[in-house]
What does this fold into?
Amino acid sequence: MKNRIAIIIIMLLLGTIGLCLIVKSGDISDDDRENIKENVSFYHNTLATPPIPQSVQFCGENVPIQTYWVREGLEKELIIHCYQHSRTIQTFKRSGRFFPEIEKILKEEGVPEDLKYVCVAESNLENVVSPAKASGYWQFMESTGKNYGLEINTTVDERYHIEKSTRAACKYFKDLYKKFGSWTLAAAAYNMGENGLQRVLTEQEENNYWKLLLNTETSRYVSRIISYKLMFEQPELYGVQFTKTDYYKPVPYKEISVDSNIASLVTFAKDQKILYRELKELNPWLRGKSLPQKGTPYIIRIPLKSEFQYVELY
It folds into this structure.
């Protein structure tokens, strides 16, 4: 019995000593504390619900923000984007490089500028591949891309061509708008497929996106797009503190027409006095190491000089 009591006393003493050591190790001098404050004075991570405007529109169409599930859905996407810092920051930075060209094309094609946020929601302005094999900035499936005039094969994949894929997306959206009568439903069809959306509309006898019971992805889709719209239109309201030089700038380039086979893109790049890397970065639609000619000339972008310095762009 005495041995048991002694063991208990020893354990209590050891625990007390350990606690004292932990507290001691956590002590910070006043000078150290002031230094920490100075070093992180620019950073404020406040946990709060992002603000939602009293009225919201998407492509000129009113969003029923007072309906509780609509408001909560938009709030959910805003929370994700406001606190998913690394991805959101990179998306904002890339917008400086790609939005000017995307906006120009949307205007030329006669579709609402808000559709640029579809590209953001789809790919965060990157050439990515989804698990379902949708590819490029606008995440076209191969069959849909080909239906809208994109060349897709082992050497060329125009889903990765910022201009051509954006024009194809505009044409697709115009067809969807013509079929469903609203840009909101067109966006839903872009996500889940027009046949899938039509089936849901028929089954539920409803033609309002916000009143439909949809799969999880599509039910969040338009709210995700709108959340990006709100953040890009009022960045300061959502804590985005960027200066002009924080946004990536477009790389100045010229275009050349190629109407003959290119046996080696490495050699072609050297002939243009640029790096192979630079050729591929400005022309990500070139998927192979050569470019066979198939009749119609290819337009290739060439940087105005090789190895632009950061200060030259900014």
